[in-house]
From TrEMBL:
<dbReference type="Pfam" id="PF00271">
    <property type="entry name" value="Helicase_C"/>
</dbReference>
<keyword id="KW-0347">Helicase</keyword>
<dbReference type="Pfam" id="PF00270">
    <property type="entry name" value="DEAD"/>
</dbReference>
<dbReference type="GO" id="GO:0003723">
    <property type="term" value="F:RNA binding"/>
</dbReference>
<feature type="domain" description="Helicase ATP-binding">
    <location>
        <begin position="70"/>
        <end position="251"/>
    </location>
</feature>
<feature type="region of interest" description="Disordered">
    <location>
        <begin position="512"/>
        <end position="558"/>
    </location>
</feature>
<dbReference type="InterPro" id="IPR011545">
    <property type="entry name" value="DEAD/DEAH_box_helicase_dom"/>
</dbReference>
<feature type="compositionally biased region" description="Polar residues">
    <location>
        <begin position="23"/>
        <end position="38"/>
    </location>
</feature>
<feature type="region of interest" description="Disordered">
    <location>
        <begin position="1"/>
        <end position="38"/>
    </location>
</feature>
<comment type="similarity">
    <text>Belongs to the DEAD box helicase family.</text>
</comment>
<keyword id="KW-0067">ATP-binding</keyword>
<keyword id="KW-0694">RNA-binding</keyword>
<dbReference type="InterPro" id="IPR014001">
    <property type="entry name" value="Helicase_ATP-bd"/>
</dbReference>
<dbReference type="GO" id="GO:0005524">
    <property type="term" value="F:ATP binding"/>
</dbReference>
<keyword id="KW-0547">Nucleotide-binding</keyword>
<dbReference type="GO" id="GO:0016787">
    <property type="term" value="F:hydrolase activity"/>
</dbReference>
<keyword id="KW-0378">Hydrolase</keyword>
Length: 558
């Protein structure tokens, strides 16, 4: 594909902003202090789009990214777009793509015209839903192909039903390209969109994406428009992105010069506590949100690994009983149907807590999230920004808190995180919490996951391997409730060696980890979350992931 310089197209915000009309599904609460700075004074009613699209759009005023990209999108030029989280990027790419499609003669039903790639299943489904809404006045139809759901049903639907817009996760799309004649349906696509482009273009997804691109006709045969969107686009990613765009592509950013891409109106704080107190601190922060928002308190608690998420969810359920809203959990080791069920329940809840791994860190639009709480190190500064972006969306208010141990708080001094305005949290009264009753199996898995993930950050934290292992063991004893105070949970010898802590005192290395309840690991063959970004090591990912971040887990590097 062509490579070349982009026209920098920094969007100049308008001074004559008007308050937006509330959207249908994300209306600010009465009396809520909202932030309208990313809405423009341009109404969809006055925008250069068809009456059909005007009727379908549930909003009144365009956001800055929507205004900045509408005409460019309609012109068919390639776009690389960066705009803050929750500012309506989905409609920004869908709307011009649908409009361009509407200008053509209705394509035969066997042809896909718009292909949207998303890194996670939940996000793909959310995009499908938004596209469904936007085409309800058009004769177009939307389908999705995502991992973890019935592939035969997806094949049947693709063969028998109209599909103008296809939303896909990369792994499942590639499976279908390899096993069906889907390639034929994609030969004339008019628009290709990479949502969360930096995630799709990173090392984890790149091999899959390259294979997918090999199935698409080259751009001389198929002069399609390519649009890449994300809230985070590092200079490196911009260079990679340019390889997939035509030389005359436009780079649009709604971020001001030197502006950090978290919202200024979102207060961000850090609680620094010893690892033994992390659950207590989490309960205290969640209780503060309940005090502030009453039965409208809706929080997301981000953890670093799937098993750490599961353990934290169970500990919070018990510790917050009677004082905190209902606790849900979501991570990559759950079945897809359970993941979908949980996401729907949390979306519909007025007050709830979602304890989650990074499968919901990007793009997910749960209405009314009042607090994003991050427990432990995020995988990268980008991931911190995307997680925080689950609150204060579409002009609403929200806040973020991160809980770190004293060594983990070195994170805040890294060049990537330094510009982000995170203040020390006001002193907390830590509640007492009941003793853990996690199963031994979950304790072993969460301990192994903690080691696998955090090992990548030893250098960033500036701690010795011994101190690191001591900290892991305190996590096992004081947080997970591992009963044997002399011998920590077992970890496979090979795993310990691979992650570089094989010979360290305090590691209980065994040839094979036996799980008391059930022999063998419950690990699915699905994506694993892993750490990267601040640490000294680069991630090594499986070549065909389907969702968000991936963890090394036992036996693989973090
Ligand atoms: N013009 C608009 N006016 C009001 N609300 C809008 C508008 N456009 C989009 N929204 C709403 O804003 C919310 C966030 O939109 P969306 O999920 O597309 O944001 P995003 O920029 O893609 O976020 P992320 O970076 O997290 O992926 C959604 O609830 C959407 O319906």
């Amino acid at each position: 594909m062509a490579r070349g310089p982009a026209t920098a197209h920094a969007f100049k915000p308008r001074l004559d902003r008007l308050p937006p009309a509330p959207s249908q599904n994300n209306e600010p609460e009465f009396g809520e202090r909202t932030n309208q700075s990313h809405f423009t004074s341009m109404r969809f009613a006055d925008a250069p789009i068809s009456e059909k699209s005007k009727m379908a759009i549930p909003h009144q005023y365009l956001t800055d990214v929507q205004e900045a990209t509408l005409e460019l999108g309609l012109s068919g030029v390639d776009l690389l777009v960066q705009a803050k989280t929750g500012t309506g990027k989905t409609a920004a790419f869908l709307l011009p793509a649908i409009e361009r499609l509407a200008k053509r003669r209705l394509p035969p039903s066997g042809n896909v015209s718009i292909l949207v790639l998303s890194p996670t299943r939940e996000l793909a489904m959310q995009i499908q839903k938004e596209a469904d809404g936007l085409v309800r006045t058009h004769p177009f139809s939307v389908q999705s192909v995502i991992g973890g759901s019935d592939i035969n049903q997806q094949k049947r639907k693709l063969t028998t039903q109209r599909c103008d817009i296809l939303v896909a996760t990369p792994g499942r799309l590639l499976d279908l390209l390899e096993s069906t004649d889907l390639r034929r349906k994609l030969h004339g696509i008019q628009t290709l969109v990479l949502d969360e482009a930096d995630r799709l273009l990173d090392q984890g997804f790149m091999p899959t994406l390259k294979s997918i691109f090999n199935f698409l006709p080259n751009r001389e045969e198929n002069p399609r428009q390519c649009m890449l969107y994300s809230a985070t686009l590092s200079e490196d990613i911009k260079k990679v992105a340019a390889l997939y765009l035509t030389p005359d592509y436009e780079f649009v950013s709604t971020l001001g010069e030197d502006e950090v891409n978290t919202h200024q109106h979102v207060p961000q704080t850090c609680v620094t506590v010893p690892i033994s107190d992390t659950i207590k601190a989490a309960v205290a922060v969640l209780q503060e949100d309940v005090l502030e928002h009453g039965n409208r308190s809706k929080s997301m608690v981000f953890c670093t690994t799937a098993m750490g998420t599961s353990a934290t969810a169970q500990l919070l359920k018990k510790a917050g009983y009677g004082t905190l809203p209902q606790v849900f959990e979501i991570h990559s080791r759950m079945t897809q149907s359970k993941r979908l069920w949980t996401a729907q329940k949390f979306r519909a809840a007025t007050s709830a807590i979602l304890v989650t791994s990074d499968v919901t860190a990007r793009g997910m639009d749960f209405p009314g999230v009042t607090l994003v709480l991050q427990v432990g190190l995020p995988a990268s500064s980008e991931q911190y920004i995307h997680r925080l972006g689950r609150t204060a969306r579409a002009g609403r208010s929200g806040k973020g808190t991160i809980i770190l141990t004293p060594s983990e708080s070195a994170l805040l001094r890294t060049p990537e995180m330094k510009p982000i305005p995170i203040q020390a949290h006001p002193p907390l009264q830590l509640p007492s919490v009941p003793a853990s009753d996690l199963t031994k199996k979950l304790q072993i898995q969460a301990y192994g996951a903690w080691l696998g993930f955090n090992t990548a950050f030893i250098r960033m934290m500036g701690v010795s391997k011994q101190k690191f292992v001591d900290e892991a063991n305190r996590y096992a004893w004081d947080v997970l409730g591992w009963a044997d105070k002399h011998v920590p949970p077992p970890i496979a010898r090979r795993t310990a060696q691979v992650i570089g802590i094989g010979g360290v005192k305090g590691i209980n290395a065994v040839s094979r980890v036996e799980y008391p309840e059930d022999e063998g690991s419950s690990r699915s063959d699905e994506e694993r979350e892993r750490g990267f970004g601040f640490g000294s090591r680069q991630p090594q990912r499986s070549s065909r992931p389907n969702t968000g971040s991936h963890w090394a887990g036992q036996g693989r590097r973090g």
